[in-house]
Write a structure and sequence with these properties.
heterodimer; A: mainly alpha; B: MetI-like fold; globular
Amino acid sequence: MKPVRTAASYSLPIFVLLAYLLMYVPIVVLIFYSFNGGQTPHQWEGFSLVWYRELFASVEILDALRNSLIVAFSSVVLSVVMGLFFVFYSARTVLQNFLFLFYGSLAAPEVVLAVGLLSFFAFFSIPLGLTTLIAAHTLVGLSYVTPILYSSFKGLDYRITEASLDLGATEWQTFTKVIVPMLSPAIMGASLLVFIISFDDFILSFFCSGASTMTLPMYIFATIRSGATPVINALSTLLLVMSSLAVLVFTLFRVRTRVF
Amino acid sequence: MIPALLWQILFLYLPLVFIIFVSFLKDIDYLVVGNLSLQHYTDLLKPIYLKIWGRSLSLAFFTSTLCLAIAYPVAYFLVFRIKRMRNLLLFLLVLPFWANFLVLVYAWFFVLEQGGILNSFLLNLGIISEPLRILNTQFAVYLVMLFCFLPFMVMPIYSSMEKINKSIFEASFDLGANRWQTLTRIIMPLSSSGIRTGFFLVFIPAFGEFVVPLLLGGGKTMYVGSLISFLFLETKSIEWGAAFTCVSGIILIVAVFALNKLLKTIFGKERV
C-alpha cells in the first residue's frame, strides 16, 4: 500500500530543501561574482576572467600560498611520521593508555591553544614565524592522525606482525615493509585531512605566525577587514574547488577517517 | 613512540599549565614568590566581564541549539527518506565541512550587505521600502554562525543515524507506536550520542569564536574570543589575558558538563 501523501509529508523535503538553499546560495553567488569584470567586489558588470589573472600575478598572494603550502606539507609529514611511530611502538605497551592525551587539542577552543602557544613562545623568546606555525599545526594534526592510525592499526591482525618477526624481519623492517604498506589507505586519508586542516586554519596562524609571515587564510582575513577586493572572490572560488576535489578523493577511495 | 607524546606535552599541556601559572603573576617578567597575586582574578569580577561571558554563552548555546534544530531533520531525511539523490546530497553536506571557514563567512557578505541579494529580494517583493542594515548587527552574527557551523552538527548525527537498523521502524509501528512516538522514543535515543557530539563540536568553538563577530558584527561587541585576542595581541597584557582565559575555560567546562546532562535527559541514553 502506498503511503498517503498529505501536506505534512511534504514538509520535511521542503525543510531540507530550504536548509540546502540557505547553505548554498551564498556560495553560488560568490562563485558567480568571481567572474565579474567590475572593480567592486559585489556589483555585477559583465563576465571576465580578469580577477583570476590578477590572482596569479599578485606577489602577496603567491607568497601567502607558498607559506601555506610549506606549513601544510611540513605538518602532514611530521604528524603522520610521529603518529605512525607512536602507533607501532606503543600498541601493546603501557603507552597506549596515553592515547587520550591526543584528544586535548580537539576538546579546547582553538583560541585557548593559540594563546597558550603564543605566551609559551614569547616566554622562551622563540621568534614567531614558519617554524612556530608548523609546531602549532603539527600539534593539531597529531590529534587527528594518531587516533585514526591507531584504530586502523588495531584493525590489523596482530599475528601479521608476529609472523613477520618470526620470519626474521627486524622490528624496523616489519614497520616499513609490512605495517606501513598495510596502513597506507589510512595514512593517505589522515594526510589529506591534516593538509586541509592546516591549509584552512586561521586562528592558530593568526596568533602563532608573527607579523612577517602570512598564510592564505590570513591574507583573506586581512583583505576582508580592510575592504574586500574582487581578487578575494576568485581566490575563494579556487579554494572551494580545491575542497571539493578533496571531498571527491575521500569518497572515491572510501577512506575511513571518522574522528567522531 | 615518544616524539608524538612529547610534542603534545610540549606544545599543548605545558603551555596550558604555563597560562594557569602566569595568571597568578603580577608581572610576567619576575618569576619570584612575592610576585604571586590574585589581583587579575579579582579584577575580573566586574559586570562588564560577566556580560562578555554571558554573551558568548548565549551565542554558543543558540548557535548549537538552532544548528541541532536544522541538522536533525536534514540528517533524518538523508538517512531514512531518500535513496536516489543521497550521494549527491551527502557530498553537498560534507563539502562545507572541508571548505575554508573564512570563505564560507565571506560568502555571506553577498547576501547580507546593503545592496546584497537579501535586500534586493525583500525590496522586489515590496516587503521593505528601504534596504535594511543587516551587516554589523547581532542578527548577522547569529545567522552566519548558524550556517557556518551547521556541517559540524550534521555529520556526527548522520553517522549515528546511519547505524540504526531500518527495520526498527516496522517493529515500532507493529507494536502500535505512531510516527512521533517512534521518533522521540526510538530514533532520538538511538542517535543521542551523535546529537551530543555535534552539539559540542559546535558549542565549544562557538564559545571562543571571534572571527564572525569581528567581520560581521562590526567588531564593536566583545565576545570571549575577541577579548582574549585583544588582550594577547593588542594590549599584550599576558597575565591578565591568562586570568581571563582560565576563568573562561572553567565556565566552558561547567557549561559542557551541565549541557551534557541536559541533553541526556532530553534525548535519552542509548541502551544497547
